[in-house]
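If you are new to this repository, start here. Below is one unmodified record pulled from the training split, so you can see the exact layout before writing a loader.
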Amino acid sequence: MRNISYYVGGKEKQKKIGRYGKGKMTLKAIRDKYTELSKEYQSGIDVKAQETEQAAAAERERQAQAAIERKAKLQGSFRQLIDLYLEYAKTNLSNHYYQSVNRAFLFNLKDFDTNLKVSEIAKGDINSILNPIINRGSLVMANRMRSYLLAAFNWGIEFDDPDNPAKTVQFFIESNPVAKIKKALKKENPVDRFLDETEVYTLWQGLNQSSMSVHRANVLKLMLATGARLEALSGLQWHEIDWNERLITIPPKRSKNGQYWVIPLNDIAHEILLSNPRLDDVFLFPAGNGIEPLRTDSFSQATTRLCLSIGMKHFTPRDLRITFKTLGGKAGLDKDIRDRLQNHALTDVSAKHYDRYDYLLEKRRAMKIWNTYLQRIIDNSGTAQVIPFKKNA
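And here is the target side for that same chain:
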């Protein structure tokens, strides 16, 4: 082994040049290398330290390139973010939310290139999704879509857990691009359409005589009889009904606020369910394909056709919940019990953290009063009489 000796700070150091011999370095090559290193030494360069630094720099470059290649391999697309977020929503959030987000994404992302890498998506890309919604005048939907995208990107940021190297996809989102975009509508006007007693009578008679399927008609009637959401009733399953206790129990996965929703059955609702044709062993109101319940979006068109056929001012299925809330107040039910019957999320501190009473007794009493009020409307016995509701009666 041939070496070169040199001094740095008065200390002798040696640098290996190479081995001389057959199949190794020639004597000339060794001399040339010695001359080269000598010049570097004479110029004040620590050749050994330089070689070490060069090796370290090469390793850093190799690691950086490996990181770039790994990132390129793992980097998730917008399509992957959407699919994984929907999977998360379906498993961990309410079915109502999942269905709403899924429908919004299917309709509003059909013209967007979802193959783009998530980390490349900027404010302009989000605007290209929201602007067509705004341009067609659907400002409320634009707000909803913005909210859904904001939630998806926030979820993607949390999904990128640096402590979990086993993940096969990461999104590398540095900041949420949706957060930089203002709402299309700063304040959404509350929907105030409700049916008065005369309209409820007209609707009920119209449902009895219309060509609408008996299952759709029964869902709409149940909305009036119970005040429940369309999504909860249209997806109702036979095992969710307790016939002995006359209760419907909507599980958290089908409840908008993610909590159990217990609905007492008054006489009108009970009779509707008893007379409902059983065409499926799982769903009370099955779709034609026999594998899922009636689609909620099918009710809007059916309701529009019904209104035209009976000469009634247009309403949406959601307006029936508002009708229950409004006429229930006229019947004498206080707001607190109406909120509980309709499974509204109670936001006061006491209700959220301390109150674990289920109010089933009060809800049964309220449903009995509402049943009497609604029956008078259906029977066309004049304006329904207000019946004072007493919690402790």
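Two things worth knowing about this chain: Residues 1-47 form one domain. Residues 348-357 have pLDDT under 50 and may be disordered.
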